[in-house]
Amino acid sequence: MIKKCLFPAAGYGTRFLPATKAMPKEMLPILTKPLIQYGVEEAMNAGCHVMAVITGRGKRAITDHFDISYELEHQIKNSSKEVLLKEIRHIIATCTFTYTRQNEMKGLGDAILKGNVLVGEQDPFAVILADDLCVNPEGDGVLRQMIDLYNKYKCCIVAIMEVPNDEVHKYGVIEGNELENGVFMVSNMVEKPSSDKAPSNLAIIGRYILTPDIFTVIQKTKPGKNGELQITDALCEQAKKGMVIAYKFQGKRFDCGSVEGFVEATNYFYDLQKSATTS
Ligand code: UTP
Known about the structure:
Elements: E1 4-8, E2 29-30, E3 33-34, H1 35-45, E4 50-55, H2 60-65, H3 70-76, H4 86-94, E5 96-101, H5 108-114, H6 116-119, E6 125-128, E7 132-135, H7 142-153, E8 156-162, E9 172-180, E10 183-191, E11 202-210, H8 214-220, H9 231-240, E12 244-248, E13 252-255, H10 259-278
Parallel strand pairs: 1-4, 1-6, 4-5, 8-12
Antiparallel strand pairs: 2-3, 6-11, 7-13, 8-11, 9-10, 10-12
Helix pairs in contact: 5-8, 5-9, 8-9
The structure holds uridine 5'-triphosphate (UTP).
Residues 8-15, 25, 54, 102, 105-108, 110-111, 129-131, 257 line the site of uridine 5'-triphosphate.
């Protein structure tokens, strides 16, 4: 049973400067909802109710967002605005939030390692990078799909998508054999390869199911690309033992860590909202 979801949210978000100088990237809104709330809702819909957040300096807005604001509650009580807090109130009432800080931004692998204290040693857990916003209008959310797959294969799962060859250098890229439609047994993984060195165009996006033995593997992993501790390098060790599945998820993913993806997501959700109100 996967009940805990880790949200590494300690990164600097330099692509969004100056907006992210004093505000966490994860709090940037798509319409009226911050990115991390979309991620938390996806995790809830997948059956998780413990949200473990890796924060850092300047990220206190995240903690405040997932807490009651008594002053605001008092101010809008019985007004037409109350409805705007319905979803966040439900999240606060249903989920437990735990936090720890990553003091130095040494990479995603290091951020996940810091989460060990929050998710423990016993159970598999999910990881969502909130700046990768995923939706599936046709059915189950991406994390739900991955948990279903975990229940079948009982090993680490990474979500992948096909990307153009000239974009592989932005991602971790997998090599593997297709076991069933869209499901690959991973044999190798490379972090941000140049297009001539990439083993495929199947890129890892910000959704993972990890088994707790990953923490020992990360501890033994040396800093990789850009001198950062890369989760891709740790997972590559697991993949060599046949313990990683890559899954071409159903749905859409917006790279909201980039301005272009952020605008795309905004337009998508705006159109969705407009068509819902006019129909
Ligand atoms: P990114 O690669 O998007 O980095 O991290 P970033 O620092 O957030 O953004 P840019 O590139 O400077 O614009 C992917 C995810 O991993 C987290 C980030 O918060 C983001 O959710 N992360 C990354 C950490 O928590 N700690 C790190 O040391 C690095």
